[in-house]
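Progress narrative, work stream C.
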Amino acid sequence: MAVNDTIGDMLTRIRNANLARHQTTDVPSTRMTRSIASVLKEEGFITDFEEVGEGVKRHLVIALKYRGKQRRPIINRLQRISKPGLRVYSNRRELPRVLGGIGIAIISTSSGIMTDRNARQTGVGGEILCYVW
């Protein structure tokens, strides 16, 4: 089945797996989903990810992270901001702060996919893909 919004599909799969308390979830592999997964790993929202399969059948296996004996998810909310029907851009001075800096905004810049904090340090703006907290 063809998916038009691979980022939205990825966020929904992670959100659903978190609610069901799964250890891992599968996401179709694209350059964008790999970049977003690496940002989530760097920021400590997921444990790890790996790419499996060959050719068109490649997908990412994302290992989710939980805390405590009750297995409360580390990711409380994933919110898609820029959608295929309405793109949302921001310059470097207007980059959003998610929950006063507790969460992150994932930004697609000319220097690659990065967090809002890194984009401010680099001095670049771009498309606001999603918020994670």
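Work stream C, second folded protein:
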Amino acid sequence: MKRKSIRAAVCGIAAALNVTLMFFGGVVYIFAYTVPMLLGLISVMIKKTFGVGSAALVYAASSILSFILVPDKECVLMFVLFFGYYPIVKSYFDKIKIKPLRFLSKLLVFNTSIAVIELLCVYLFHIPFFEDGVFSYALLIGFAAAMNFTFIMYDYLLKIFLVLYEKKIEKRITKYLK
């Protein structure tokens, strides 16, 4: 019983922390992209400590509350449509044995998500993709290249963070769960 109550409390705090930090997405434009990435680390910790179900519940609660409470919808969409769930499902992608297929499947999911996010931002929330309103293929290609590079680094850093979490942090947390 103690473990269930601790899990519920930690997951509730994690969801509240996700929503609170999501507010920073509107402070500086680049935070709309970096805050959801950082919140993925919370998902990694919840998944590793309490399991996929708990991480999925934190993701769902954070997503719903963020849509209601957070004014920066681009930040919310980045979290909901990719960076909130990707750390939870990353281990399933990592089970693909053929490395090029694993890499391409991750990129396909990421690029599809980013395309949907940007289309929703432009057509549903009327957030301009280009600040000056002038469309440029060079700027679009630069954005796509930068986002793909960022994703590759993010995927690698998630792996490093998981190892660090398992070796340094998880033991300290799980001693309170017994």
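The two ends are 10 Å apart (CA to CA). No further action is required on this item.
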